Amino acid sequence: MINQEQAVVELRQVSKRFGNYEAIKNLNLSIGKGEFFSIVGPSGCGKTTTLKMIAGFDHATEGSVYLSGTSANHIPPYKRNVNTVFQNYALFPHMTVYDNVAYPLKIRKVPKNEIRPRVIESLKMVSMDRFLDRSPNQLSGGQKQRVALARALISKPEILLLDEPLSALDFHLRQEMQRVLKHLQREVDITFVYITHDQGEALSLSDRIAVMENGVLHQVGSPEEIYETPRTKFVAGFIGKTNLIKGKMEGPSNFVSDAGFQAMTNDASGLLGEPHVYISVRPEKLRASKEDDRYVNRLSAVFVEETYYGSDKELTFREAGGTHILMKQQQDDGNMRFSAGESVDLFFRPEDAIIVKEWGS
Amino acid sequence: MRLKNVLILLMSIVILVGLSGCGGNASSENTGAGKASPTAPSNGGEDLAKFKGETINVLSWEGYQEDEWVKPFEQKYGVTVKVTYAGSVDEMFAKAASGSVKYDLIFMDGGSVNRYHKMNLIQPIDLTKLTNTKQLIENMKSLNDKHVVKDGETYAVPFAWGSLPMMVNTDKIKEPIDSWNALWDSKYNGKIVTLDDAANQTAMTALLLGFEDPYNLTDEQLDQVKKKLLEQKPLVRTYYSGFEDGKNLMASDEGWIGFSMGPTMITDLQKEGKNIVEVIPKEGALVWIDNAVIGKDAKDPELVHVYIDYLISSEVQAQLIKKTSYGGVNADSASMLTAEEKKVSHMDDPNYFNNLVYVAFPESFEKRVKLWNEIKAAQ
Amino acid sequence: MYGKNLMLIIISIWVLLFIVLPVSAMLLFSFWSVENFQVIHSFNIQNYAKFFHDPIYLSLFGKTIKLALIVAVLSALISYPLALFVNHRGGTYKTILFLGVLAPLWVGYLVRIYSWRSILGESGFINSLLVLTGILKQPSSSLLFNSFAVVITMLCISIPFTFIPIYSAIEKIPGNLAQAAADLGANGSRAFWTVTFPLSLPGVVTGFMFAFITSFGDYMTPSLVGGTSGIMYGNIIQTQFGNSYNWPLGAALSMIMLLFILALIAATRKIGNVQAIFEE
């Protein structure tokens, strides 16, 4: 964990209400220097509000936002060492690319002779230095995004906030921009706070990820932690695909589903007292045959259908409790074929069975 | 985007309202349920059916074509009297001259007849077809004829008249006023109102200056008039631009004394409770006589003659006086008026005309308009 | 496709009937002359020469430009903060506030002028208030029948027309641009002058032109509240069409006004084009 001294952004017990609607509920978050930190969640989860409070466009109803250790509650946006890349780029349409990127320097009264080299340097970083005199209207979406990045980075902020910066781009451009972002972040050594609803993007880019839902923070951790050991049903379901069956713990690693299915799981002694929990098994962890001795858990199910995805296919089953179970089948697994209604036993290892809570903390 | 729609809607309404406002003046047809009236003309063995279905297009002043006398005529002959009203001399002239509608009958002050005649917009009237002309007030008719008879042909028959006297608020001004000089009196600085009308302003000033013919001034006389009006300008509250404007100014006490547009203006103000009186100054006052004139391209001049004869009959003239308090032209109508009505319309005073000067056709409208514009533009 | 063509035809007919034809007729008239109340249909430029030779026309033209400029500048200065306020602070009352600003347009043109006369008059609302509160000992006659009254009355007419384009220009500016400016270090006033204002400038120019043109051609307001010197260029044109029956001179004076305004519109067209800035 990152200690207090290193925290560039810290939210302490922050709540935000709009009238009766509680957008953020008692949020605690600490982001370290130089981190690529993502906040993910579906729309309405509070991630954009969180970002706005860090930028200074919104203020916490309760609690405090600290920037580099000092309370920023009363610091207006223009005095914060925080810059933002907006979802729709927010380039000034009445200025050229050059003037857009030079804007923060001119505002901060940087000596005239320093401005030009810095603008060019900044635009070079995003390979846009050939477009100095273009108007933003003459640029493609990806180009605008690069200019917005150059503009936000030119005054070397401590923190760069990125509000779903790639959501308006098509698939290939998005892939390319992800590489640009990752590369840039390492180069400039600035803390990136990245807002996205795309869990895949978060997983591939981030040092750490915070998962939010309905204003509540569910879990913070590295991509591996989030994916491998989700703590709540929501995190397990939102980050990657998973199978969830409701039940409760009868021993530290003994799960029994409501329908009576029993499984050995990883250690979940902390959840023994919960009235109900879920067992989470990723589709790629399921097998249709007992591959080796570690596959001690057997789930009886009925085959429903298969869906073809090119590199792999997904088989759908229904277990005794009525829940649909997905199993990912790799091409090289051989060609198992089931007919609809056929009974199949599915196997998985205890260490692949994660127990998660219903709600976040 | 809802607001944008509201915006577009608003703009279109504004434009529509604006447009209709621009063209906004009375062009109304005289149909609708008419109040039945007693006076229907009866000319012995006339063939009533011969005009059936015809229409008379009339360009008139408000108040001259009221249902009380138009309806009975329409019913008797089975014709339609279609009336277009004009709000000012300018507007009337513009309407008649544009030629977009061929008017059969036009009403205008006798002074304007000259111009319509010169522009070939009107045709002579056959007096033999009119039976009521012998009842016209004698001295009024002879004054009028000087301006409407051209080369022995009569182009117009008088219908109504009115003076342009001075109006004085006796609550504010106690001393007796008997001269146009009062409108140049610095005692009334900022309380004088006068008419924004080039021809009549010039004529009234010419009266005061004692020029013999106020509608036929030499350039030198016009210069003197200009000087006199420039002298007056700083004392004047404002030049009013029409009947309602003038009434409004006197009613709100912005003006205490002024050059009026006629006795009707004064009687209207009296009805509002203002103690405002009419004064015919010793230098004399202007009088307009409105005439009926037949349009050049009248469809059926014979029908128009019948209508004109009807309009100057003593019955219609008495109704006109009762309804509008303009001066009537038929001497016989006096017998049908109350003493009060006779007094207001000056039908009781045969000498009233002696001190009035006919609103005639000026030597040059252009010169007067230019003179007047220069006065208004002067700093 | 068919509907689009039909629309084009209708618009063309409209333009032809209500713009091209009248203006052509006026242009033709402006080269004719009048003698003895007869229009002489022979080409000459004496009417245009009059405009430049007789000082009354040029001086009134200048006076009218000055007055229209004052009205347009004040109109923009008042409308701008109003538009900012309605857009930023209007909240749920936006539509109501918006209609409120446009309210003067619902009152007839003449009624509006007469209303101002009764507000500014000696026994009017403002004087009564000033006397009642003891600020004045007796009613002042200097509120009405002068250029001040003309400007006030014209403002009442022009503000809605200035407000609408300014408001829609401000409304069109994406909200995140001002945020971006603040984010990049600009405080409120810097953000306003570097981003909001330049982006709303086209609306300001359009609104300014609306106010200028409506004031320039208005002759009723000066003649009803302007007092003895309330004459403007429009009045001079108007008098040519009445009794003096000098339509050719009136047409020439109108053509000069039309050309002047067209030139002005052409000159300001570049900055007045909001569309170009936001086009994707």
Automatic annotation (TrEMBL), chain A:
PANTHER family: SPERMIDINE/PUTRESCINE IMPORT ATP-BINDING PROTEIN POTA (PTHR42781), SPERMIDINE_PUTRESCINE IMPORT ATP-BINDING PROTEIN POTA (PTHR42781:SF4). InterPro entries: AAA+_ATPase, ABC_SmlMolc_Importer, ABC_transporter-like_ATP-bd, ABC_transporter-like_CS, Mo/tungstate-bd_C_term_dom, P-loop_NTPase, Transp-assoc_OB_typ2. The keyword Isomerase does not apply. This is ABC transporter ATP-binding protein. It holds the Pfam family TOBE_2. Keywords: ATP-binding, Nucleotide-binding, Translocase, Transport. GO terms for cellular component: ATP-binding cassette (ABC) transporter complex. Gene3D superfamilies: 2.40.50.100, P-loop containing nucleotide triphosphate hydrolases. One of its GO terms (molecular function) is ATP hydrolysis activity. It comes from the Bacteria. It comes from Paenibacillus rhizophilus. PROSITE patterns: ABC_TRANSPORTER_1, ABC_TRANSPORTER_2. The lineage of its organism: Bacteria, Bacillati, Bacillota, Bacilli, Bacillales. Residues 9-239 form the ABC transporter domain.
Automatic annotation (TrEMBL), chain B:
The keyword Transport applies. InterPro entries: SBP, Sperm_putr-bd. GO terms for cellular component: periplasmic space. Pfam families: SBP_bac_8. Its main location: periplasm. Residues 27-47 are annotated as: Disordered. Keywords: Periplasm, Signal, Transport. One of its GO terms (molecular function) is polyamine binding. It is found in: Periplasm. GO terms for biological process: polyamine transport. The keyword Zinc-finger does not apply. This is Extracellular solute-binding protein. It comes from Paenibacillus rhizophilus.
